[in-house]
Amino acid sequence: LQVFDAEGKDVTPQPLFPSDPSAGKGKLLASRTCLGAPGSAQLSSFSLHPASGMNASVGSSSGINWSDLLTSPHSSDVQMRQEEREEELTEEDLDRRVDIYLTETATLWIMDMPSVVVSSEAEDAGRVLERNKLYVERCRSRGGNDGFVDKGMQTLSGASKSKDAQCDTVSRAEKGVMVTSWDLYDSLKGAEVEALSKAEGRRAMTGKSSRAKEHDQTPSVSCDTGSTISSLKTWESAALSRSQKEEESHAEAILTSAKLQQDLFYMERILMENIFQPKLAAYRQLPVLRDTNGTAAPMGEAEQEEDGKEKEDTEEQTEASVNPAAVSHLSETPEEIAPPGLELLWSYRCDLTSGQNVSSMAWNKVNPDLLAVGYGAFDFREQRKGLACCWSLKNPMWPERVFQCEHGITALDFSLASPNLLAVGMYDGSVSICDVRNCATTALLESSDSSNKHTAAVWQLKWLEQDRGGKGGGKKERLLCISADGRITEWLIQRRLDCTDLMAIKRIGSEEKMKTFPGEKERKSEALISPRAPGMCFDFHPKDTTIYLAGTEEGHIHRCSSLHSAQFLGTYRGHKAPVYKVAWNPLHTDLFLSCSADWSMILWHQDCQAPLFAFTSTPAVVQDIMWSPKSPFVFAAAKQSRGEVWDLNVSILEPVICWDDASPGGSFTSVLFAPNTQCLLLGDSKGDVRVLQLHNLPVPSSCRKVGCTRSSSAPA
Questions:
Q1: Which residue, 473, 461, 346, is CA-closest to 414?
Q2: What are the DSSP E strand ranges found in 370-416?
Q3: What is the rounded distance in angstroms from the CA atom of residue 164 to the CA atom of residue 397?
Q4: Are 599 and 576 contacting, i.e. CB atoms less than 8 angstroms apart?
Q5: Which of 92, 97, 422, 497 is least enclosed, having the fewest CB within 10 Å?
Q6: Could you tell me how far CA 358 lies from the centroid of its own chain?
Q7: Which residue ranges are recorded for the region named Disordered (predicted)?
């Protein structure tokens, strides 16, 4: 099918794809129908291929109305010729790819409603219309006019502002009601009483109305009866609410009464004794017996003596009633005893102390069952609020007293003259005094108002008794502490805390650097940031309380006197890192022990500035050490990896007991011997204080052997 216009030009639409020269000029879809036949007029093909140079509006560009052409085949303006050609399609033609291109048509506007800013009924509507007309005329006259110049302008967008609104949090509360059998009974009885009162009210109304009819009275009597019933109901409800309020107030008074609190306290003590009875008996070195029910019960002293007489021949009872004398006797034959060991009795921990670092521990000097534990981080980056808890053997699951502090606690100690006073040193340099007799969580005295307070962490403090001197005699107690600001101070406890400097720890080493050899020029002195050396620990001599040792961050240990604050009596050099603890031997007072961050522990003699022995078992920082109060050979150490017990009478190369069962992810930070029992306490960085019992550790009966051994080894 071919289409010609009035001038005879061929305007037939091009095919959808270029024809194959070998296939002739046939069309892919050829129509064999006659154009003149009514109802059979069709176009053989219609292409929108861009190569044909035609688009969807071909009819309008050539002046031909395609709709008229299709509906009026006999039009005189268009000549159409129909050629019948047979199209032969091969498999290649069928498999060939056909490209169809779709283009966007013109937009058809169905409705256009321009925006209106000013209402037509407004007063200035006419003026706005005139301005709009002038603007339209100016836009029309803009083209070709030299009076208009195109210029660009940049408009800055307004800065956005974010606004937040703060509101109170929605408080939610869960409430529950417990229904008991008597509550159900009271509710049932109340419903029965209400139903009975309603029935009596109806009966009274019926009787009144019948009497009114008989006596020809007015119905005002029934109204009076109704008001009487309503007042009766009101009185019943008021009485019921009053009784409930009285019961609630009575129950609240019972719960808040001092008698109930005391009874609950005694009940708690009884339960704790029942739960921890075997452990407490082992702690106090009492035999544990089993009764008929299988539960453990302690033996009294009289029963223990009788039982020892009756079962003196049995081997088990002999092992249970062993005493220190027997242990010292058996120490001569070590092959017959079991090796020393530790047994876990219990741990002091609760939700308050979970995750807190145990920084220091101290026993009460009058009540040996009361333990004070300080919680605070050693590192500046891990600082948070500190805790001071007083634990009792009668309740290992919750502390008896809890004192909240604004900063981490680094040291604490109980007073001997006033056992209820607990001194606390903190990381920011402040010192507080707490009264354990009161249930208050705040301190009794604080050093925040003192103008001479410490400016760095208080690493150790101690209550010390000294002779008053003079004719009066007696002893006085002093509170001393050492701080990282290089000062050793004495605190005066009056209406407020105030301190005086006992010693300013000077740095040493600058004088050594200034020494010159012969023929060498004199060197300039190096400027120091601070002339004071940070103090880390101190300990006073057990016999002469005017002599004390001070360990510094430089690794030096100074022997000082409280009578001479201007200079040191001597300096011991042996550590290469900060000294964390120094401790005099309580039984052999010429020896003292020190530990440091250089992984070592060193035994010193006060008359020799060279170390006697250096102990290093594992490459780990030694956080704390303590001598045993019963043996001059035994001391304990708290390392980051484990706790150790050394017996110098057995070996000086390795500890006799090791305990490496720390909390997951934690390390041991402090160690403390129990004063009256064979037990050891280990604190870690996760807030746990483990109470461990020492087994098969010999205790010498006298310390005369110590003096002979150490005096002979001192020159070495």
A1: 461
A2: 370-375, 386-392, 401-405, 409-414
A3: 46
A4: no
A5: 97
A6: 16
A7: 1-24, 199-228, 292-333
Q: Can you tell me the distance from the alpha carbon of 350 to that of 396, in angstroms, rounded to the nearest whole number?
A: 9
Q: What is the DSSP string of 305-356?
A: HHHHHHTSS-HHHHHHT--HHHHHHHTT-GGGSPPPEEEEEEEE--TTTTT-
* Helix, strand and coil percent figures for the chain, each rounded to 5: 25, 25, 50
Instruction: State residue 319 phi and psi, 5-degree precision.
Output: -70, -35
CA quadruple 546, 549, 553, 556: dihedral sign: positive
Per-residue burial over 182-195, b = 16 or more CB atoms within 10 Å of its CB, e = otherwise: eeeeeeeeeeeeee
Assigned domain for 366 exists: no
Which residue bears the tokens 């256009």? 112
Question: DSSP class of residue 28?
Answer: S
Q: Exposed (0-12), middle (13-18) or buried (19+): which is 558, by Cβ within 10 Å? A: buried
Domain CATH code at residue 463: 2.130.10.10
- Count the neighbouring beta carbons within 10 Å of the beta carbon of residue 586: 15
Burial of 584 (0-12, 13-18, 19+ CB in 10 A): buried
Query: Does residue 48 register a pLDDT over 60?
Result: no
Is residue 298 in some structural domain?
no
Range(s) of the domain holding residue 633: 341-351+446-468+475-507+530-695
DSSP alpha helices (H): ranges in 122-257? 125-140, 181-214, 220-255
> For residue range 407-447, what is the model confidence (pLDDT) as tens digits?
899 999 999 988 999 999 999 899 999 999 888 778 888 88
465: confidence class by pLDDT, cuts 50, 70, 90: confident
- State pLDDT tens for residues 674-686: 988 899 999 999 9
Could you tell me if residue 156 is inside a domain?
no
Residue 321 CA to residue 323 CA, distance in Å, equals 6
Residues 6 or more apart in contact with residue 589 via CB below 8 angstroms: 541, 542, 543
Question: CA neighbours within 13 Å on the CB side: how many for 177?
Answer: 3
What is the total residue count of the chain?
Answer: 716
pLDDT in tens, 201-224: 565 555 544 544 444 444 443 444
Separation of alpha carbons 560 and 537, rounded Å: 13
**Which residue type sits at 453?**
K
Contact of 436 with 422, CB cutoff 8 Å? yes
Provide the strand spans (E) within 46-110.
79-81
CB-CB contact of 664 with 324 (8 Å): no
pTM over 0.90: no
Residues 6+ away with beta carbon under 8 Å from 563: 546
- DSSP assignments along 467-495, one per residue: E--TTT--EEEEEEEEETTSEEEEEEESS
Neighbours of 702 (CB within 10 A): 9
Helices 220-255, 181-214: crossing angle, 10 deg rounding: 160
The CA–CA distances, whole Å, from 304 to 298, 300, 318, 322 equal: 10, 6, 12, 12
Instruction: Say which amino acid occupies 196.
Output: L
Q: Using an 8 Å Cβ cutoff, are 550 and 537 in contact?
A: yes
In total, how many domains does the chain have?
Answer: 1
Is there a domain that residue 488 lies in?
yes
Largest Cα separation within the chain, whole Å, is 152
Instruction: Calculate Rg over the CA atoms of the chain.
Output: 52
Closest CA to 591 of 685, 696, 709, 672: 709
- pLDDT tens digits along 233-276: 676 677 777 777 777 777 777 778 888 888 888 888 888 888 88
